[in-house]
Amino acid sequence: MYPPRRSRPWRTGTIPVYLVAHHAKSQLWHASTLLFGFFLTEACGIDARSMGWIMAASLLLNGVIDWCVGRWLRDSVTQEMIARRLQARGTALTCGFFLLFCATPLVPTDARSAWALATLLGFRATYPLLDVPQNAFAALLPLGRHARCTLLAGRNIASGLAAVAVSLVAAPMLIGHTGIVGWMIWAGGLSAFVCGTAWWLARMPAIENMPRPEADAPTPPGLPFSTILCALAVMIAASAMFRVIEPYYAAFAADGAGLLLWASVGGTLSQPAWAWCRRRWAESGVLIGAAILLLGAAATLSSAQRCSPIGIVLIGSAFGVGSGGLWLMLWADMMDRAARGNATRYVGTFTCVSKAAQAAAILLTGHVLAATPYRFAMRDPLSWPSLSMVGALVAIAGVCLALALAITVSRIPSDGTPARPHRAGRKGRAPDLQPPARSMAHGVRGASASDFPAIR
């Protein structure tokens, strides 16, 4: 007898459900990174310097636990079903701490700082239990290099839509001071959405464990992983500084018109184009294109059009499209490595560096805001908060150009002759998924994901 054939991702709907679950989780994360700083200073009455320390300490804790969880799970999470079940187990605890943090305005004024720090640390400490397995799921799927990049572009679209939802629903509540009741209703609804989609994903049928096609196997990386991590650290630090200051820019300089909404729209809509460009063109050319967009956004943010409607659309969209392209390149490179083994270890290391960089940037941003009367200084393009936003855009563009140069140099052989560029997908590319061979050998390759007991 042959073992029962397990369903493919597009037949079971597992990948669409995964994208919905990632969208829900991303709303939770975007709320914590985009709004919590503004929430602490404006809704909870905590000074900017304390806000910086609270946010930085919690993010650093999150990054360390990401790294620990990634190493802890590296030998046990080797199948996509295991990853899906583990991510479901961490949702309730994470969402509970999220709700407790959102209730900070209900706490007496003297205890708010301590309450905010304790509940935010709880949220950050439990978030990796949801985040690391859910991210590793993409590396554990039986996909080729290009199909995996397409899936990551879909993830980024889901994350971008999450940022749009946070910008349209939660951000106006904070900036408009609509009250704690509406804020808590939103937080409760979001928590229910995150828990429901995580458990829905865990209950989906198992995906057949097919070998990856040889013709579409991951190409050998041209850059060391340490170089990718350094680029990630600079990109995330600069992006975090820009995003933390942006709500203050929207509230006190742009009369409520935010850049992040247009950044989310631009980053979301551009993902299919970036995935297509990565498949057809050299990565160095893609990165140069992203750098040009980011430098254009920096120039507009420094000009007299920085607060005009057209200027806000151009700055936000160019930031979203440019940083979205770099983000996809970094994630795709990391996932190509993770797909070869030790998926959670690569994911945990990658997200650890990302969150440590955010912690450093938020700490610096808190000091920048505390050193200036930001409610008035945001209207001045030469003030420290305004210059910090411009500098962040230039830094991300610099990362794109540095990576493009490093990739070009790494492809030059020792004799100095440039290697012939590789145009992916031109010759007989095999399909990303092939049907499994109906042989007795299929049944003795090892235990399948369905051998593990279901979560009750």
The number of helical segments is 15
Order of helices and strands: HHHHHHHHHHHHHHH
Characterize the overall form: globular
Helical fraction equals over 70%
What number is the mean pLDDT?
A: 81
Rg calculated over all Cα atoms: 22 Å
Largest sheet: none
Identify low-pLDDT runs.
1-7, 213-221, 414-419, 421-456
Structure classification: mainly alpha
Describe the structure.
It is a single chain. The chain is mostly helical. 71% of the residues lie in helices and 0% in strands. The radius of gyration is 22 Å and the shape is globular. The two termini are 30 Å apart. Residues 1-7, 213-221, 414-419 and 421-456 have low confidence and may be disordered.
SSE layout and pairings?
Blueprint: H1 9-12, H2 14-43, H3 48-73, H4 80-89, H5 91-102, H6 112-140, H7 145-175, H8 180-202, H9 225-252, H10 259-280, H11 283-301, H12 309-338, H13 343-370, H14 374-377, H15 384-410
Helix pairs in contact: 2-3, 2-6, 2-7, 2-8, 2-9, 3-6, 3-13, 4-6, 4-8, 5-6, 5-8, 6-13, 7-10, 7-12, 9-12, 9-13, 9-15, 10-12, 11-12, 11-15, 12-13, 12-15
